[in-house]
Automatic annotation (TrEMBL), chain A:
Keywords: Chromosome partition. One of its GO terms (biological process) is protein maturation. Residues 1-22 are annotated as: Disordered. Residues 38-115 form the MIP18 family-like domain. The lineage of its organism: Eukaryota, Metazoa, Ecdysozoa, Arthropoda, Hexapoda. The keyword Transferase does not apply. This is MIP18 family-like domain-containing protein. Belongs to the MIP18 family. Residues 1-11 have a biased composition (Polar residues). SUPFAM superfamilies: Fe-S cluster assembly (FSCA) domain-like. It holds the Pfam family FeS_assembly_P. GO terms for cellular component: cytosolic [4Fe-4S] assembly targeting complex. It comes from the Eukaryota.
Automatic annotation (TrEMBL), chain B:
It holds the Pfam family WD40. The lineage of its organism: Eukaryota, Metazoa, Ecdysozoa, Arthropoda, Hexapoda. WD repeats lie at residues 10-42, 55-96, 99-132, 144-176, 190-222, 299-336. Essential component of the cytosolic iron-sulfur (Fe/S) protein assembly machinery. Required for the maturation of extramitochondrial Fe/S proteins. Belongs to the WD repeat CIA1 family. This is Probable cytosolic iron-sulfur protein assembly protein Ciao1. GO terms for biological process: iron-sulfur cluster assembly. Keywords: Repeat, WD repeat. PANTHER family: CYTOSOLIC IRON-SULFUR PROTEIN ASSEMBLY PROTEIN CIAO1-RELATED, WD40 PROTEIN CIAO1. GO terms for cellular component: cytosolic [4Fe-4S] assembly targeting complex. The keyword Repeat applies. Gene3D superfamilies: YVTN repeat-like/Quinoprotein amine dehydrogenase.
C-alpha cells in the first residue's frame, strides 16, 4: 500500500489468547477430530493487519465468539470487525481471511466471511463483494494483490 | 421416479471448471476454466474423452465458451479482457480473431441465433454487441452501458435479435436494435431479484425467461406484447416483462446457472450448495401465474459448487455440469 497514513492511526490493542490447551482426546486416534471455532480462530488470529504491525487478534478484528462452524453442513462463518466503521481496508482484510481459510481448510467447507453487523458503513457492499467467488477468483489472479495478501497471512 | 443418472465423470482440467458448452449437433462439447485452457470432448465408443486442448489463447481464467449456431466457430471469454474466436479452417482449431475492447474481465459470450452477431459482457459494467463483418472480422456495433455494476451473463432470444443480460446490480436488461437508426438500446429492465443475477435462459418460444440469483431463487418472467389479451399496460409499443413465478426454498446457496431445455421444457439449476435440481411446469399451469414442480434433486452432484449446467441441444435429456472441484459430469435424465 502506498498510503502513508493509516485509516485508524491509533487503534486499541488487546491481549492475545493463550494457546489452546491440549487434552488427552487430542492424541487419541479413535476420537474423530472435528473442526471447532477455536481451530478456525487459530488459523486466522495471526493474520497481520494490512496497516499496522499487529495481528487481527490484537486489534480484536477477529474473535473466537464471532466464528461459527457446522461440521455436518460443512459451513464456516467468520464475522470480522474493522477497527473503525469507515475502514478502507475492510475488503482486503476479509479477502485475507478468506484466502487463508481456503488454503487451510478441506475443500468440502463452504466459507462465508462477512463484516460484523453494524461495524462498517459499507457493510452490505463489502459482504456482497466477499461473497462473489467470481470476483474473488479474478482478484486472486492479480499478482500485486496476492503479494499483499500473502504478506498479511505469512505469519498466520 | 425421475432420476439424474451419472454417465461419466470427466477430469482433465486443473482447478475450477467454469463453463461447458455443447456443439449444436450434441456430439462434441467444450469446457474451460481456471487453467486457461479449452478442452474439446467427444465420444469414443462409450467413453467421453478429450479430443483437443486449446492453449495459449488467453493469459487468465477462461470464464465461458460458446459454439456458433453453425458449429464452425467457438468463442471464449476470458478474465484477460479479450474474447477469442476459434475455428478449424486450417484443419485444426486455431484462434483467428481476438475481440478487444472490454477494460477488464470478460465474463460471458453468446452468439445470436443467426450467428451474425456476438454479445460479450464484463466487469466494466458494459455489454458489447459485435457484428460478424467478414472472414475473421468482427466489428463493434454497440457498447451498452445500462447496468451500474458488473455484468455476469448475456443470452440471446432463440429466434430474434433480442439480447438479455444479468448483473451484479440485481437486475436483468433486454436490448434490441432500433431499425430506424441502427442503434441498440435497452428496452426493458427486469427487477425483482434481491442479489446478483448470475444467469438466464429463454424458453423455446423466447416469450419467457428464467433467471437465477445469489438470492437463492429462480424467477420466471413472461413477455406481455403490445395489445396483449391480459390487459397488461404496455408503453411505447415495447413489450413489458413481468415476474410471474418465483421458485424459492429449494437451493440453500447461490444459484450460478440455469438451463431451459427447448425440447422437453425441463429447467435445470446449478448451485453453490453442490446440488443440481430439475423443475418442470405443472400440467394445469396458468400462463399468467405458472407453477413449477421440483421433479429431481441430485444432492452432492459435485463435491464443490456447481458452476454450470447445459442440456444437450438434440433433446436427448443429456445434461452437462461442471464444478469448482475440477470435474465435468455427464448425466442422463429420465423423467418417469
Amino acid at each position: 500500500m502506498t498510503k502513508s497514513v493509516a485509516d485508524n492511526v491509533n487503534p486499541n490493542i488487546y491481549e492475545k489468547e493463550s494457546e489452546r490447551e491440549k487434552t488427552a482426546a487430542d492424541f487419541d486416534e479413535d476420537v474423530e477430530d472435528l473442526f471447532d471455532e477455536r481451530e478456525i480462530f487459530d488459523l486466522i488470529r495471526n493474520i497481520n493487519d494490512p496497516e499496522h504491525p499487529l495481528t487481527l487478534e490484537e486489534l480484536r478484528v477477529v474473535e473466537e465468539s464471532n466464528i461459527r462452524v457446522d461440521n455436518k453442513d460443512n459451513t464456516v462463518v467468520v464475522n470480522f470487525t474493522p477497527t473503525i466503521p469507515h475502514c478502507s481496508m475492510a475488503t482486503l482484510i476479509g479477502l485475507s481471511i478468506r484466502v487463508q481459510l481456503l488454503r487451510a481448510l478441506p475443500s468440502r467447507f463452504k466459507v462465508t466471511v462477512e463484516v460484523s453487523e453494524g461495524s462498517h458503513v459499507s457493510e452490505h457492499a463489502v459482504n456482497k463483494q466477499l461473497a462473489d467467488k467470481e470476483r474473488i477468483a479474478a482478484a486472486l489472479e492479480n499478482k500485486n494483490l496476492v503479494q499483499i495478501i500473502n504478506q498479511c497471512i505469512a505469519a498466520a | 421416479m425421475p432420476n439424474l443418472e451419472l454417465i461419466q465423470a470427466l477430469s482433465g482440467h486443473k482447478g475450477i471448471v467454469w463453463n461447458v458448452s455443447w456443439h449444436p449437433q450434441g456430439k462434441i462439447f467444450a469446457s474451460c476454466g481456471e487453467d486457461k485452457t479449452i478442452k474439446l470432448w467427444s465420444k469414443e465408443g462409450q467413453e467421453w474423452t478429450i479430443k483437443t486442448v486449446l492453449v495459449d489463447g488467453h493469459q487468465r481464467t477462461i470464464r465461458e465458451v460458446a459454439w456458433s449456431p453453425c458449429g464452425n466457430y467457438l468463442a471464449s471469454a476470458s478474465f484477460d479482457a479479450t474474447t477469442a474466436i476459434w475455428d478449424k479452417k486450417s484443419g485444426q482449431f486455431e484462434c483467428n480473431a481476438t475481440l478487444e475492447g472490454h477494460e477488464n474481465e470478460v465474463k460471458s459470450v453468446a452468439w445470436s441465433p443467426s450467428g451474425q452477431l456476438l454479445a460479450t459482457c464484463g466487469r466494466d459494467k458494459s455489454v458489447w454487441v459485435w457484428e460478424v463483418a467478414g472472414e475473421d472480422e468482427y466489428e463493434c456495433e454497440s457498447v451498452l452501458n445500462a447496468h451500474n455494476q458488473d455484468v455476469k451473463k448475456v443470452a440471446w432470444h432463440p429466434s430474434l435479435d433480442i439480447l438479455a443480460s444479468a448483473s451484479y446490480d440485481n437486475s436483468v436488461k433486454l436490448y434490441k436494435e432500433d431499425p430506424a437508426d441502427n442503434d441498440w438500446s435497452c428496452i426493458a429492465t427486469l427487477q425483482s431479484h434481491e442479489s446478483t443475477v448470475w444467469s438466464l435462459t429463454f424458453d423455446k418460444t423466447g416469450e419467457r425467461l428464467a433467471t437465477c440469483s445469489d438470492d437463492r431463487t429462480v424467477k420466471i418472467w413472461k413477455e406481455y406484447k403490445p395489445d396483449n389479451q391480459e390487459g397488461v399496460i404496455v408503453t411505447d409499443r415495447e413489450s413489458v416483462w413481468k415476474c410471474v413465478c418465483t421458485l424459492s426454498g429449494f437451493h440453500t446457496r447461490c444459484i450460478y446457472d440455469i438451463a431451459w431445455c427447448h425440447h422437453t421444457g425441463f429447467l435445470a439449476t446449478a448451485s453453490g450448495d453442490d446440488i443440481i435440481r430439475i423443475f418442470k411446469e405443472s400440467e394445469d399451469s396458468d400462463p399468467n401465474s405458472p407453477t413449477f414442480d421440483l421433479v429431481c434433486t441430485k444432492l452432492n452432484a459435485h463435491s464443490q459448487d456447481v458452476n454450470s449446467v447445459r442440456w444437450n441441444p438434440t433433446g436427448n435429456k443429456e445434461l452437462l455440469s461442471c464444478s469448482d472441484d475440477g470435474e465435468i459430469k455427464i448425466w442422463s435424465f429420465s423423467s418417469d
